[in-house]
Specification:
The protein is α+β, with helices and mostly antiparallel strands. The chain has a domain at 65-156: 2-Layer Sandwich (Double Stranded RNA Binding Domain). It has helices spanning 2-56, 96-99, 108-112, 134-156, 163-195, and strands at residues 69-73, 89-95, 117-118, 123-128. The protein is elongated and about 100 Å long. The relative contact order is 0.10.
């Protein structure tokens, strides 16, 4: 019986030590997570800044036309006597696999989910037949592509943070750091009290 009691005592002690470990390693894990979150935030901001610069330079000629396929068919829209007689309707087809590497990643979801995306072929298919001239309709297709990308930018890339917002974020970060320091001090005092046995003066 003494042997069993000794074994049970060791098991209870091991169980108690195991359950105290998270307290011993908690602060380092918290710091690691905080650093990882901070690095992720810095990476996100760098990606946003790069996307803003790219969008600022975007125009209808940004996407090279050699990755696009343009075909013509008879128009059913305006065009007077040329309607259904001249193949003036332009259809612009762009493989998603060729387009996405040329635009910021933040815009990809909106491009793929757009109404121009043909899921079966995985292409963007844009059409225009407003003019009786083929070239005008081709240019209209590229304008629609440009507008699609611009809208994706507005939906996914917020404007630059104002100075007031930056200050507010800095204040919140300082308050969070102060809170962590207070928690560490509190934990330190608790440990000191345990080591002292928690006894006050007689």
């Amino acid at each position: 019986m003494l042997r069993n009691n000794s074994k049970n005592g060791r098991l209870l002690m091991q169980h108690a030590i195991t359950h105290r470990r998270p307290l011993a390693y908690g602060p380092s894990i918290t710091v690691t997570r905080w650093l990882a979150t901070r690095r992720a935030g810095e990476d996100d901001e760098a990606e946003l800044a790069a996307a803003r610069r790219w969008l600022a330079q975007l125009d209808p000629d940004t996407i090279p036309r050699d990755i696009c396929d343009v075909s013509f068919s008879r128009s059913s829209g305006p065009g007077g006597q040329n309607v259904n007689k001249v193949s003036s309707k332009a259809t612009l087809r762009i493989p998603i696999s060729s387009l996405l590497p040329r635009i910021p990643k933040l815009l990809h979801p909106s491009i793929v989910s757009s109404r121009y995306h043909a899921a079966k072929s995985n292409d963007l298919v844009i059409q225009a037949d407003d003019s009786r001239k083929q070239n005008d309709n081709v240019n209209a297709c590229f304008r629609k592509l440009n507008e699609l990308i611009q809208q994706a930018g507005r939906d996914n890339v917020p404007g630059e943070t104002s100075q007031e917002q930056v200050k507010r974020v800095e204040q919140l970060q300082k308050a969070e750091a102060a809170g962590r320091r207070k928690m560490k001090e509190f934990q330190s005092k608790k440990k000191s009290a345990r080591r002292g046995g928690g006894r006050g003066d007689d």
